[in-house]
Write a structure and sequence with these properties.
This protein has 413 residues and is of the alpha/beta class. It is built from 13 helices and 17 strands. It folds into three domains: 171 residues, Molybdenum Cofactor Biosythetic Enzyme, Chain A (3-Layer(aba) Sandwich); 75 residues, Alpha-Beta Plaits, CATH 3.30.70.2860; 156 residues, CinA-like (Maf protein, Alpha-Beta Complex), CATH 3.90.950. The strands form four sheets. It has a six-stranded mixed β-sheet, with helices on both faces. Helix 2 packs across helix 3 and helix 8 packs parallel to helix 13. The radius of gyration is 28 Å and the shape is elongated.
């Protein structure tokens, strides 16, 4: 079943608000066997909403609205849907009485404009909103299904889960979307696609997407299955990808890099300390986002200045004078120093130039060095990161975690 999502709200056309409802709905619709082929964000203009619904009725079997069901004058989804469907809005006395009870139970007097929320499109089925005042609606029109949902995420999810999802599952007839995911690090997007394209193009029934971000690259496989279909080709493609780039895959279970590294530290009974210059605490923040990280994370030192590197991590001043703060030698000294200072079994360090200033032809903006030491081996790696200051810092943080993962892998081989 082809589905379309229309998100209503002028605030979502500004840089101050973002739409999360369509992400939730897409996930749930896919699980229920509906393919979302179009999403639209439209402002609170009745004429625009009407036109979009009229167009949607020509191309989609299931149309879901999010938002615009409130009591104010700019909540126009009800009126727009009624206009597009050429059906009148009719006051529902039961909904009106329920609204009055809800306000009274909370100690409020209902404002007259809340009465608009009791207006129902003729022949629509009412979808109870247990968490708010705006009920949803389910409308059938010429073999099309139109669903009006409230905008607040908690309310939308409650109405959808209780009233909409069971109906959609029946309509889909058992069709479902099966997926496989790979999170990859240590490769560029073009390098990855060069290796994988000869493999995934052999499977035309499977949609393969490669998405690069500042944290990692995601490869996702999608296959729509009807009742009786098997997933042998999906499992076969997933197995071939795993075989081709295995060590570069750090998760197939939607785990973050910090979760994977945390599990490896626990299993190997290692503890970690970090020394950060250009990332200034971002690495430690990501490590400690994982519940239970106190079991392996000793702490971190933000050694932004040369003085801090020397006094807090024991980096010799003449090493900095000779090689510069951004260098392989200083990265290694920081890893050794923070490991000893915080009594960890592994020290991990970052030093670099995040910009926008401070670069030179020899050491450009984006140059970062990462050091790691466990008392037996001390290593460093460097990269020149693209992007602005914030993306350089984020990319560097995840590169450090990625290289720590590789370091731990080698220790267990």
């Amino acid at each position: 079943m082809k589905a379309e999502i229309i998100v209503v709200g002028s605030e979502l056309l500004t840089p101050d608000s973002s739409d999360t409802n369509s992400l939730y709905l897409t996930h749930k619709l896919n699980e229920a066997g509906c393919e979302v082929h179009l999403k639209t964000i439209v402002g609170d203009v009745q004429k625009d909403i009407e036109e979009i619904l009229q167009q949607a009725l020509q191309r989609s079997e299931l149309i879901l609205f999010s938002g615009g069901l409130g009591p104010t004058m700019d909540d126009r989804t009800r009126a727009a849907a009624a206009g597009a469907l050429k059906r009148p809005l009719v006051p529902d006395p039961e909904i009106l009485e329920d609204l009055r009870r809800k306000f009274a139970s909370r100690g409020f007097k209902m404002s007259p404009n809340n009465e608009r929320q009791a207006d129902v499109i003729r022949e629509a089925e009412i979808l109870e909103n247990r968490l708010g005042t705006a009920p949803g609606m389910w409308i059938e029109e010429a073999n099309r299904y139109i669903v009006l949902l409230p905008g607040p995420p908690r309310e939308l999810q409650s109405v959808f889960e209780h009233h909409v999802l069971p109906r959609i599952r029946k309509l889909s007839g058992g069709t479902r979307l099966e997926t496989r995911s790979f999170y990859i690090t240590g490769m560029t997007e073009s390098e990855l696609d060069t290796q994988l394209a000869p493999i995934y193009t052999v499977y035309p029934r499977i949609k393969t997407t490669i998405l690069a971000g500042t944290k990692h690259i995601s490869v996702r496989l999608y296959r729509w299955l009807r009742p009786g279909d098997d997933i042998e080709d999906l499992d076969e493609l997933a197995s071939r990808i795993q075989e081709k780039i295995g060590p570069a895959i750090f998760s197939t279970q939607n785990e973050s890099m910090e979760e994977v590294v945390g599990r490896m530290l626990r299993e190997s009974r290692n503890t970690l300390a970090v020394a950060e210059s250009c990332t200034a605490g971002m690495l430690g923040m990501h490590v400690t986002r994982v519940p239970g990280s106190s079991g392996y994370f000793q702490g971190g030192i933000q050694c932004y200045s040369d003085t801090a590197k020397t006094e807090l991590c024991g980096v010799p001043a003449d090493l900095i004078r000779t090689h510069g703060a951004v260098s392989a030698e200083v990265a290694e000294a920081l890893a050794i120093g923070v490991r000893n200072k915080l009594h960890a079994s592994i020290g991990l360090s970052i030093t670099g130039i995040a910009g926008p200033g401070g670069g030179s032809p020899e050491k450009p903006v984006g140059l970062v060095y990462i050091g790691v030491s466990d008392g037996v081996d001390t290593l460093n790696r460097h990269r020149i990161m693209p992007g602005d200051r914030e993306s350089i810092r984020e990319r560097t943080t995840y590169l450090a975690l990625s290289w720590l993962r590789r370091f731990l892998m080698k220790k267990t081989e």
